[in-house]
Specification:
By secondary structure, the chain is mostly helical. It has a domain at 34-93. It has three helices and two strands, in the order H-E-E-H-H. The chain has helices at 22-32, 48-64, 82-90; strands spanning 37-41, 44-47. A hairpin with a 2-residue loop joins strand 1 and strand 2 (44-47). GO terms for molecular function: ATP binding; ligase activity. The chain crosses the membrane at residues 73-91. Keywords: ATP-binding, Ligase, Membrane, Nucleotide-binding, Transmembrane, Transmembrane helix. Belongs to the ATP-dependent AMP-binding enzyme family.
Length: 93
């Protein structure tokens, strides 16, 4: 008799497993829906492409200052602001 295998028993490889990080989600949303709104705050609107670009710019600025993996960064942000949403993606890779 053949024992049924759960998908969790399979070894992870490119065919059956991909880590879904917030950065992957942001990049994919920018590719698939570049002109759709990602953030709306009052009269300000940002598309997925703009949000992705802003996050990449900030990550690049940190990298240019030798701030990378395993470094601690403190940001003072207004809760629920557009900046807070953008920078969540920067630090989740």
């Amino acid at each position: 008799m053949v024992r049924a295998r759960d998908i969790d028993d399979l070894p992870k490889n490119a065919a059956n497993y991909t880590a879904l990080t917030p950065l992957w989600f942001l990049q994919r949303a920018a590719q698939v829906h570049p002109t759709r709104n990602s953030l709306i705050h009052g009269s300000r609107r940002y598309t997925w492409q703009q949000t992705y670009h802003r996050c990449r710019q900030f990550a690049s600025a940190l990298s240019n200052r030798s701030i990378g993996l395993a470094k601690t960064v403190l940001l003072f942000l207004i809760p629920f602001s557009l900046f807070a949403v953008n920078y969540i993606f920067v630090f989740k890779e």
